[in-house]
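Journal club prep — side note

Before the paper discussion, L.F. wants everyone to see what a predicted structure for a comparable chain looks like in token form. Sequence:
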Amino acid sequence: MSATEVLARFRAEVGAAVTRARRASGEIGERNAKLRERTRDLAAQARERKVEPGARATSADVREAATGFRADRGLAVEQVPEAAELTAPVPVETERVTLGSVAVAGPSGQLPRVSDDDEDFSQSRILY
């Protein structure tokens, strides 16, 4: 083999290696972008306390390791609620409902007086 052939073969092998490296780098970049997006979505769900039913919480060991990894590298460590807080039922506010019938005017045409005390008002229709 002549030097020209060896040099051409070397350049071809280097070119192929560079092409493979670029392809691998691109694939890894896409994979990392998807992972970052998924992580952002999960963090947003945790912040907004929107957890899918039946979702499993990450174990404490893994969370501690991830926090330590980020802290060691000087990266921001976002504080998110604990799993127990995320899966706790959210209290639901309901309207106050008054049970019973509406007071009826008595023979004098007057309605019974309205009060907030706990007196027995069962005879109010008769008294007024």
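L.F.'s comment for the group: The longest helix spans residues 3-47. Keep this in mind when we get to the figures.
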